[in-house]
Specification:
6-stranded antiparallel β-barrel, 5-stranded parallel beta sheet, 15 helices, 19 strands, binds manganese (II) ion
């Protein structure tokens, strides 16, 4: 992941002064104990830091302002150990911009049946204290995640961890920069969009550069120099490199050119502090090959990418790289490419011209060079492999003109048969609930042909992300029914229009 930024989550406990200083000290001790337990919880990818027990409107307001101002804070967890009259939260929460999770837990798991008295009852009040808090969150129309369960409950911790992944990706997007080499593939609609609107609502910026800027950076690397040789050696150490591309092979120069493109592209991204990029085969200028292996390896290092100028997919892929970090399975740029329409066994073959990320590979990729019918350049070098079988999902971010919509479709990836003449990496999957429904609803929802494909990012993480980003999300999975889905789209049209007013 580049650059590595690991933000923190703040833990805040709500209370009041009604019960005196003794119980408040106990509340703070309990909150700290929960936070200490969080630090040993492998399901939580971010460090949680205990901040305070807040008891007055001034404290709440100060704390929310401090959270917004702290670049290391990716979000907050609120918990009302005791009753915290919620009017004192109004000022703080109306200004708070960071996402929050409402943890509905209780310090003691079991009731002490023999010893329970009113002191115990007054200390362990989240059952009604969190209801008071939740009422205000809803009254303020604050989007948040509510997680219910004892703090030792693995399922509850898994759900908190899922939210932390989404909060981290949102944090990563704020102020992020993506570079677009050239513009859009001419005439294409779905890869276009309102970049100003994206920056206003989603926090990242998309900046254009002429391809000449990249070509100049690539040409700073000597084709017969040490850096290129070292990278070619790295390719030979990491992948199965075709004989013709190896040292002394008849086409070794093609590998060197591909390595030079990777060096230049990586340097350009590092120089500019970019978190992802797009290119287009229609605008390659002095680049000798359409970048293939370079893009694939940069994606594997956590960069977002979208082909044909698709900056929305580049940004989404980066966000999903951040969400999935440390999880099993990979995440890649993907395109619904072609279908197998055998009755009773409909399948989608996903691929792209070159740019599929090797983090989703089932086995060691091979490095190959083949002609490319478009782009009018030399044959590009690429990694070829099959995607790992198992559950996966495709996500697409589209611009509907007045808002962005996130589509998430559950699929099941299977092992493809041998494809000896297919010169690109690929994934073969079954749709849910079935091929016809899945494709129809995707098309009704305006989903793109480009997606971010992942086995590392759960559907719940994407749902949490959509809540934090105030993004419409539509889900396609085992429960999807065509007519219901179309009705949801109609209802969403009204809801999001009213919800966003004139700010779209
Ligand atoms: Mn494409």
């Amino acid at each position: 992941m580049n650059p590595i930024v690991l933000p923190q989550i703040w833990f805040v406990c709500g209370s009041q002064h009604l019960y005196g200083p003794g119980p408040l000290r106990q509340v703070a001790r309990h909150a700290k104990e929960i936070v200490a337990a969080f630090s040993h919880e492998r399901r939580l990818p971010l460090k949680t830091v205990f901040q305070a027990v807040v008891t007055t409107p001034e404290e709440v307001t100060r704390l929310c302002a401090k959270a917004d101002a702290d670049p290391a804070c990716a979000g907050l967890i609120f918990w009302m150990h005791t009753f915290s009259p919620a009017k004192m939260w109004i000022r703080g929460l109306t200004s708070l911009r960071k996402p929050f999770l409402h943890l509905h837990t209780q310090f003691h798991r079991d009731l002490p049946w023999e010893s329970i008295d009113m002191d115990y009852m007054n200390l362990h009040q989240s059952a009604h204290g969190d209801r008071e808090a939740g009422h205000l969150h809803t009254r303020l129309r604050r989007e948040r995640k509510v997680v219910v369960g004892h703090w030792s409950d693995p399922e509850a911790m898994e759900r908190v961890g899922t939210w932390m992944r989404a909060a981290r990706a949102w944090h990563d997007w704020q102020g992020a920069r993506f570079v677009r080499f050239g513009d859009n593939m001419r005439q294409v609609a779905v890869t276009e969009g309102d970049k100003v609107s994206a920056e206003i609502h989603l926090g990242f910026s998309v900046d254009g550069h002429g391809i000449g800027d990249l070509v100049a950076r690539v040409e700073e690397f000597d084709l017969s120099g040490k850096a290129v040789t070292a990278l070619c050696d790295e390719y030979e150490g990491s992948y199965r490199v075709a004989a013709e591309l190896r040292k002394n092979g008849t086409r070794h120069q093609s590998l060197r050119e591909a390595a030079r493109i990777e060096l230049g592209l990586r340097a350009f991204l590092e120089d500019g502090g970019f978190k992802g990029f797009t290119d287009t085969f229609e605008d390659l200028g002095g680049l000798r090959q359409l970048p293939g292996i370079a893009v694939q390896r940069l994606m594997a290092d956590g960069y977002g990418f979208g082909a044909e100028g698709d900056w929305k997919t580049a940004a989404l892929l980066r966000a999903m790289k951040v969400m999935g970090e440390g999880n099993k399975g990979g995440t890649s740029f993907m395109e619904d490419y072609t279908y197998h329409l055998e009755p009773g066994r409909n399948l989608v073959l996903g691929a792209h011209m070159l740019e599929v990320c090797p983090t989703i590979a089932a086995a060691k990729p091979s490095v190959e060079v083949h002609p490319l019918g478009i782009g009018k350049r030399e044959d590009p070098v690429r990694l070829v492999f099959d995607a790992r079988p198992g559950a996966a999902r495709n996500a697409s971010l589209v611009d509907l003109g007045n808002r962005f919509r996130l589509l998430v479709a559950e699929v099941t990836t299977i092992k493809p048969p041998k494809l000896p003449h297919l010169p690109v990496a690929r994934a073969l999957w079954k749709c849910q609930p079935d091929f016809k429904t899945a494709c129809a609803v995707w098309i009704y929802a305006g989903g793109a042909h480009h997606t971010a494909y992942s086995q590392a990012v759960s559907r719940e993480t994407l749902e949490d992300f959509s809540v934090i980003a105030n993004l419409e999300i539509v889900r396609i999975g085992p429960e999807t029914r065509l007519e219901e889905f179309r009705q949801t789209l109609r209802v969403n049209e009204v809801f999001y229009h009213l919800n966003q007013g004139f700010h779209g």
